[in-house]
Amino acid sequence: MGMVKKIPMRQCIGCGEMKPKKELIRILKTAENEIIIDKTGRKNGRGAYICSSEECLLKAVKGHGLERSFKMKISEDIYEQLKGEM
Question: Which residues pair with 82 in a beta bridge?
């Protein structure tokens, strides 16, 4: 009997859909309250996930998804950096 590997699922802060972790972009809040994009998905800190579509990014901005996840105000620079990433 073979072992079935469980795929970690995360919720997108834009559309709210549960998707496999590997398909999403991880946004990270470090201990110094710095917001960065975690390409490896392994850095220490509080993470939030978003789909790689611009539509989900717009929904996250409009619905203040990052602000709710990190419980802090997010600057416009972070959203611009995310747009460039997509």
Answer: none
Answer whether 0.85 is exceeded by the pTM. Answer: yes
Residue 38: give the domain boundaries. 9-85
Domain assignment of residue 80, yes or no = yes
pLDDT tens by residue, 35-57: 888 888 889 999 999 998 889 99
Task: Judge whether 86 and 53 are in contact, CB under 8 Å.
Answer: yes
Residue 2 lies in a domain: no
* Assigned domain for 3 exists: no
CA distance 81 to 83: 5
Residue 64 gets which letter from DSSP?
T
Q: What angle do CA 11, 74, 85 make, to 5 degrees?
A: 65
Tokens of 6: 């469980």
What are 41's two structure tokens? 């998905």
Q: What is the CATH number of the domain that holds 46?
A: 3.30.1230.10
Q: Predicted confidence band at 83 (pLDDT cuts at 50, 70, 90)? A: confident
